[in-house]
Amino acid sequence: MSDKIDTGRRTLLKTSAAAAALSSVGCSSSMEPVIKGIESELPAKDALTGTGKWVGTTCQGCTSWCAKQVYVMDGRAIKLRGNVNSKVHGEASCPRQHLSLQQVYDPDRVRTPLIRTNPKKGREHDPMFKPISWDEALDLLADKILALRAADEAHKYALIRGRYSHINEFMYKHMTQMIGSPNNISHSSICAEAHKMGPYYQDGNWGYNQYDLENTKFVLSFGADPIASNRQVSYYSKTWGDALDHAKVVVVDPRLSVSASKAHKWIPIEPAQDSVLALAIAHVALVEGIWHKPFVGDFKTGKNQFIAGQDVASDAFADKHTYGLVDWWNLTLKDCTPEWAESISQVPAATIVKIAKDMGQAAPAVQVWTSRGAVMHTRGTYTSLACHALNGLFGGIDSKGGVFPGNKIKLNKKFPDSKPYLDAIAKKGVKYPKIDQRGTLAFPALKKGKPGGGVVTANTPNGMLSADPYDIKVILAYFNNFNFSSPEGQRWNDALSQVEFMAHVTTNISEFTWFADIVLPANHHMFEKWGVLDSIGNGVHQVSVQQPSINRLWDTKDDESEVPYLLAKKLAEKGFDKPWRYINEQLLDPETKQAAKNETELGELLVRYVTSPLWLDTSNKYGEPMNSWQQFTEEGVWNSHRYQLESRWGKFKTETHQFEFYSKTLEKALTKHAKNHHVSIDEVMEVCDYQARGKLAFVPHYEEPYRFGDKDKYPMLLVDHKSRLSKEGRSANTPWFYEFKDVDPGDLVQEDSAKINPVDAAKLGIKTGDKIAISSPVGEITCTAVLWEGVRPGTVAKCFGQGHWAYGRTASSQFGVEARGGNNNDIIADRYDRLSGASAFYGHIRIQIAKV
Ligand SMILES: Nc1nc2c(c(=O)[nH]1)N[C@H]1C(S)=C(S)[C@@H](COP(=O)(O)OP(=O)(O)OC[C@H]3O[C@@H](n4cnc5c(=O)[nH]c(N)nc54)[C@H](O)[C@@H]3O)O[C@H]1N2
Ligand SMILES: Nc1nc2c(c(=O)[nH]1)N[C@H]1C(S)=C(S)[C@@H](COP(=O)(O)OP(=O)(O)OC[C@H]3O[C@@H](n4cnc5c(=O)[nH]c(N)nc54)[C@H](O)[C@@H]3O)O[C@H]1N2
Ligand code: SF4
Ligand SMILES: [Mo]
């Protein structure tokens, strides 16, 4: 590697000594000069065709949803970059953007609709797909839906959604309701619902936060690895290096993540023990009197009365913008000493005291990040509360250098009411309980304070298999691969095998598609489809378009517009015209007030409808004025004004309008849930596997991690994490994923690596390169051992993403037959953080490893 490239890399990501020792540092940054070089060499015009231009679009490689520009020549995508018009990330990007070229031009893409010819469904049965036309495929689907309605079983239809864009509501919600089913099932609870519990039940934000990294003085990350994953990778990987110059950075993660390798301190926490650390930091902050008084308030006498182990009188404290600090202290925090924390977590008490003091000094320019890794575990709701509470305690909420939600913007994400289009069958059907059992006693799924308000994605196959509340007969699914991406995916295989008819809208024949009756080939979201998305970071909320930019190679269609349009038309031809009438009477262009004339017009119309407040409404006060649709599609992105600091102080959307250390909002939600089932809140806690009793249920507190399996037989714990090259499940068939795999610290190229601490490996006689089996009480996978100090002894860290037995020639060893590597979900038992409905992916997974 030349000096020039090395220097560039160091400037971009202040490489720590630990990271320098690793073979695997930032791919994006080290490749940057090369990429820039290529970019400057791009001919302005294609020599033959005279074409060549940058077109705005949006990447959905991960939930960063970055605004992009694709360079198109002669109808082909040549290169990607961050959209230069974006004020969130500008031209910056992550390394994954380049993989999208191999996705869209993947030789294994589905090119035409297909139909199953083998009636036997199962992992071991080849569906023997044969091409059919769109007309034939949709004819079959329409017939199946109409047969359900005729048999008074409309509720046995389900619409299943993985990724989506903001035009999804027609197909996802309204069409499903008009057909007569309550079952629109999203993927949210295998994504990150537990993460939202702290922010919502403390400051009223059911969503993710942005972090003012440029102005911060202290970063404490519980599992977040924002250079590699999390929610705005392009922006944070650009700024993380500079933050090290003006902020202290501490990363808590059982594994030396990319971000931990570029932090001042890495704390290799035992899995699912984060709350101990968070609570002890809070305890020290109170005892030391270093909480942020302008946000939290102070004792009326001005004298600190927080003394370890001692209660404080409830009227002694004058709260400012927070609620219930003294209650929290008295209920539990008074006993959460650093010594207590050390006894559980082995993190030295002195380290905890130092972190708390440093945070107190940096306040309010303090930001505490939480990630799936810290909270997507059984009992994770309370870790989410404990970690986020620190943002309140140190005043980071809405402060310069702190943490804030997405800026307020206006989009028409809600489509016109479809209730008038519900006939008698539909009205009856939508009243059935949902198939995922949300809202039952054992699944509170308390989204936005509403019992049963959230989805329990991974429980859907359990509901289907036990026919509780009933069975599912017809499924239309898109942009999802749940038997691969949910814990114990075998449950999905079994459930899908029993479904009478399933249509899957997909780019590739994935594991989910394997169980389909018809396959509907999807346009690639980044290059071929109409859509719209948003993203937050750098104090800005941006909205960006997805638009067709290249020549479609195959007979593919837009999942969220063309497919439902053609299906609605088919249903109308067969006598059921409600969705068709809804399209033609309600889904009107915001300027011309005309309906779409054909399926290809609908996508653009819906994006115009959703985004019209940005470019049509001249009174839009939330961001830069835009003059026209043309300007929006040409620039590709709209930027909001910068976040107004302290804008929520005094008016948080909680029960008390304060930041709630004692969550009145959670108390109200749990009271409702308990009442719905005529039980006490303690009984809810018991059924749902939490240890809290009494008022402890409403404050951040310690819950012992739940572990699954016999400790003697399965003595180690799995630490699952995302790959820097995983685009959720969608980059698995790209050769670059495997060729550049060593951008994941510790991993080997072309292999599916399990990282083992040399101390553990020595005991087991395992060497780097050995093939090993990892087994848990629910399954076994095989992969390649790597000895690596960056993993806590007693744990094995492994990327999620490999182990495909379908998807394509690169993803699987033998398509349909043999997996390449191992899917972590095969060994992750199906468990939940029931208060949020989230699946547990961390903490409970006891494993054993052995050479094969
Ligand atoms: N590269 C990449 N980035 C992505 C995605 C992707 O597929 N690839 N997907 C996007 C999506 S869909 C989402 S929801 C977001 C999620 O982004 P995050 O919420 O940040 O979650 P993950 O990256 O899944 O978090 C896993 C991290 O937690 C660590 N971890 C595991 N167990 C524990 C534990 O007990 N305690 C602590 N403190 N850490 C633990 C793991 O080592 C890993 O670093 O990422 C998005 N970004
Ligand atoms: N062990 C473990 N499991 C995890 C995670 C983890 O970190 N560890 N992460 C979890 C998270 S955060 C999430 S969000 C979920 C994601 O899980 P899912 O929502 O299931 O998403 P993907 O696995 O990305 O599957 C998307 C599928 O859509 C199809 N597809 C691909 N590209 C396109 C396209 O452009 N258009 C359409 N219509 N279809 C397309 C393909 O069939 C692909 O398999 O996985 C979760 N599962
Ligand atoms: S993969 Fe994620 S971070 Fe990378 S460009 Fe796409 S959306 Fe942005
Ligand atoms: Mo996710």
| Percent in helix | 25-40%
Number of domains: 4
Strand order of the largest sheet: 5-4-19-18-17-6-7
As for the CATH topology of the largest domain, it is: Rossmann fold
Bound molecules: ligand MGD, iron/sulfur cluster, molybdenum atom
Give the structural class: alpha/beta
- The counted number of beta strands is 33
Which CATH class of the largest domain applies here?
Alpha Beta
> What would the average pLDDT be, to the nearest integer?
95
Which outline best applies? Answer: globular
Report on the biggest sheet.
7 strands, mixed
Count of discrete alpha- or pi-helical segments spanning 4 or more residues: 29
Q: Under the CATH scheme, which architecture of the largest domain would be assigned?
A: 3-Layer(aba) Sandwich
Beta-strand fraction estimate:
15-25%
Distance between the termini: 37 Å
Regions with little confidence, pLDDT below 50 for 5+ residues = 1-29
Radius of gyration: 26 Å
Topology:
Elements: H1 3-12, H2 17-21, H3 27-41, E1 53-58, E2 67-73, E3 76-82, H4 99-104, E4 114-116, E5 129-131, H5 134-150, E6 157-161, H6 169-179, E7 184-185, H7 188-191, H8 197-203, E8 210-211, E9 218-222, H9 233-246, E10 248-252, H10 258-261, E11 265-267, H11 274-287, H12 293-296, E12 297-299, E13 317-319, E14 322-323, H13 325-331, H14 338-345, H15 349-362, E15 366-370, H16 372-375, H17 380-393, E16 403-404, H18 424-429, H19 460-465, E17 474-478, H20 482-485, H21 490-497, E18 501-506, E19 518-521, E20 531-537, E21 540-546, H22 562-573, H23 578-586, H24 599-615, H25 629-635, E22 637-639, E23 659-660, H26 664-676, H27 681-687, E24 716-722, H28 735-739, E25 753-756, H29 758-764, E26 771-776, E27 779-787, E28 795-800, E29 812-814, E30 818-819, E31 832-833, E32 838-839, E33 846-851
Parallel strand pairs: 6-7, 6-17, 9-10, 9-15, 10-11, 14-23, 17-18, 18-19, 24-28, 25-27
Antiparallel strand pairs: 1-2, 2-3, 4-5, 4-19, 8-16, 12-13, 20-21, 21-22, 24-33, 25-28, 26-27, 26-33, 29-30, 31-32
Helix pairs in contact: 1-3, 5-22, 8-17, 11-14, 11-15, 11-17, 14-15, 22-23, 22-24
The site of one ligand MGD has 36 residues, from helix 16 and strand 24.
